[in-house]
Amino acid sequence: MAKRKNLGRDIKRYSVCYFMVAPYILLFLFFILAPIIIAFFFSFTDFNMVKFPPDFSGLDNYIRIFLEDDDFLIAIRNTLVLACVTGPISYFACLFLAWFINELHPFLRAFFTVCFYAPTISGTLYVMWGFLFSGDQYGILNNVLMDLGILSEPYQWLTNTESMLPIIMVVQIWMSFGSAFLSFVAGLQGIPRSLYEAGSVDGVRNRWQELFYLTLPSMGPQLLFGAVMQIAGAFSIGATITALMGYPTTDNAALTVVTYISDFGSIRYEMGYACALSFILFVIILATHWVIEHIIMKYASD
Amino acid sequence: MSKAKAVEAVDTKKLKTRKRQKEAIARTWWGNAFVFLFLGLMAVFMLLPFYYAIMQSLKPMEEIFAYPPRFYVVNPSFNNFRSLGILTDSLWIPLSRAIFNTVFVTLAGTVCNVVVSSLAAFPFAKYNFPGSQFTFKVITKALLFTGAVTAVPQYLLIAKAGMVNTYFALLGPAVAAPMGMFLLKNFMSQIPTTMLEAAELDGASIPRIWWQIVLPNVKPAVLTLIILCFQSLWNMTGGNFIYEEKLKLLPTILQQISSSGIAYSGAAAAASVILMIPPLFVYILVQSRVLETMAHAGIDK
């Protein structure tokens, strides 16, 4: 940013700008930014909704989380496993599907875009997966597998500890073609034809070379935006788990940091502890984003 | 568009396709076959729950209980849609109240978000006022913080402000969501600065330029924002903020029905089919505008 010579004069000159941004900024400060700051401060207290003002407890919450709380270890492990699987898969699935449909006839392209984006629009339809994976005699998957002779008796997909995380991954990937996918589809459409024509003259021969040498490097901004959306989604898995499997899940096999936060926040009312958990999740998300951002920028700027 | 211009546009289009056929980078037939197979399989996977919901909603009672369960419906009937009315009659609060709540919150939230976001996006896009770059960077970072993550501290704030069990608790976070501001700012950056400078020379104030020049030029982005807002507000359950029965939203009522077991699965499916139609319909109507906007969704470095 260029150094300003006359800060006071600039502020005066643009005063009407401040009035225009004020309503949004005030709402943003109160509903989005303040919660993060509050989480940070309350994470050093024993705030529990009953005792006010809460007592300062230093690092007690953090010590308890990292050294004494065995459930947190399960939650963080599950969260990381889910994020490491659904994050990259959903990111690359968005990218490749957008790339595949890019060359189709406009009508087919619109059709597939609606297909993939539909789960995002129909917010609560994921509860239907509950019926498909149901463990009772009406579960569709069990019946198909029993007809094929693969299973001899119904398998409890939603309550058996081994199958819970894979099912959440399937449902989460199904739901993950959101704004990142749309921005990839649109970004691919925006790449000028002349780039490919020049590429074919320069000896780019097949579609893989085209993707890696021409398409992706010119999509830096979209790739960054997609990463933000998919990282945020991959670490916030919680509502789908509670809706499909309930809370708590068998042996906490599908406990994630998000469901653990809402346990402390809206069941046990240990708000200080919940805030500490929230803040740890903020830091993990920010750190992941920082790393991914650098990888993408290094790649896209070459 | 004038006729001459239209002819010109068609001609260049033809020219482009001809050129493209000649110089396009080679595509193998098995590569194309693989792409189509993969897309087809993915589309089936994506549409599976939709197909199941529609079939289940049309099944009469005896087919819902038929064993083994069928994946298609033999005698389609609208009984589930009718029984939905009877089921919801037994609730404390009539269904019409939940419908009103959801429609009101969706409309009010969408209008407020569009007005507030576009008002703020314009100065961020076109005027380098002190603090603007840093503030916008913070807002872009805030795209990372989903509702699931900020839930508890947000609840504390909203409870302290006495907004639990009011529409404000639902509308506030929705209007403050950074996505709309971010999209509009990026789209507005594309407007040629010379156009704004000309208006300024003619004596138009910044708010007037916003209203008369900028807004008409960002219609696709505004439409996109309407879609995104509409679908997220329409599907909102109200979760932590709404405990009073008369303020409960439609998706919450749906969840209550669908958690009542297999006997109500037909009615639950009918409810989710009804619920998904409005946002899906609105999206299909304006999808080309949505893509136009999302092309500018990138984060510049």
CATH class of the domain at 88-294 in chain B: Mainly Alpha
Mean pLDDT of chain A: 87
What is the CATH third-level topology name of chain A? MetI-like fold
Radius of gyration of chain A: 24 Å
Strand content of chain B: under 5%
Amount of helix of chain A = over 70%
Tell me the greatest interface: A-B, 112 and 109 residues
Low confidence ranges of chain A: none
**Rg of chain B computed from alpha carbons, rounded to a whole number of angstroms:** 25 Å
**Biggest beta sheet summary of chain A:** none
Briefly note the CATH topology name of the domain at 88-294 in chain B: MetI-like fold
Tally the helices of chain B.
14
Low-confidence stretches of chain B: 1-23
Q: Which class of chain A in CATH terms?
A: Mainly Alpha
Secondary structure: number of strands of chain A: 0
Helix content, binned percent of chain B: over 70%
Query: Which CATH architecture of chain A is right?
Result: Orthogonal Bundle
Kindly name the structural category of chain A. mainly alpha
CATH superfamily of chain A: MetI-like
Description:
- The complex is a heterodimer of chains A (302) and B (301).
- Chain A has 302 residues and is mostly helical.
- The relative contact order of chain A is 0.13.
- Chain A has 15 helices and no strands.
- Chain A has helices at 7-13, 15-42, 60-68, 70-102, 106-121, 128-132, 140-147, 161-174, 179-189, 193-201, 207-215, 220-235, 239-245, 257-266, 271-300.
- In chain A, helix 2 packs across helix 15 (271-300).
- Helix content of chain A is 70%, strand content 0%.
- The mean pLDDT of chain A is 87.
- Chain A is flat and about 70 Å long.
- Chain A has one domain (65-300): MetI-like (MetI-like fold, Orthogonal Bundle), CATH 1.10.3720.
- With 301 residues, chain B is mainly α.
- Chain B has a domain at 88-294: MetI-like fold.
- Helix content of chain B is 73%, strand content 0%.
- Chain B is globular.
- The relative contact order of chain B is 0.12.
- The model of chain B is unreliable at 1-23 (pLDDT under 50).
- At the A-B interface, helix 1, helix 2, helix 4, helix 5 and helix 6 of A face helix 1, helix 2, helix 5, helix 6 and helix 7 of B.
